[in-house]
Structures are given as C-alpha cells and as structure tokens.
Amino acid sequence: MIWLFALIGVITVAVLLWRAFGPASQPAPPPVIAPDDDPEFLRELDRHKPLDP
Q1: 12 near 4, Cβ under 8 Å?
Q2: What is the model's pLDDT at position 10?
Q3: Which residue has the higher pLDDT, 7 or 46?
Q4: E strand segments, 1-53
Q5: With contact defined as beta carbons under 8 Å apart, do 35 and 43 qualify?
Q6: For residues 5-41, b (16+ Cβ closer than 10 Å) or e, as one string?
C-alpha cells in the first residue's frame, strides 16, 4: 500500500515540475505582423512615395 502512495507522490511531483519548467512555460514569440497591417511600414511608404509630376 505504501508503494501506491509513493508512486502517486512521484507522479504528482513529476507533473508539477513538468508544468513549471516544461516547454509550455516558455513565452510565446511575438506574432508576425503582415506589412499591410504594420503602421510603421505604411508610414515609411508614405514618406518614400514619389511625387506626381
């Protein structure tokens, strides 16, 4: 019976450590913004836009 409690304890500790330090604990990379949704890119386009003759 004590082996069952020890096994449950080991599994619980392993799961808690996995949740704390596993791959899901890494911060997500910033989302990729398409050029037509990026305000800075659109400002640069307006700045470099050729003038009409």
Answers
A1: no
A2: 97
A3: 7
A4: none
A5: no
A6: eeeeeeeeeeeeeeeeeeeeeeeeeeeeeeeeeeeee
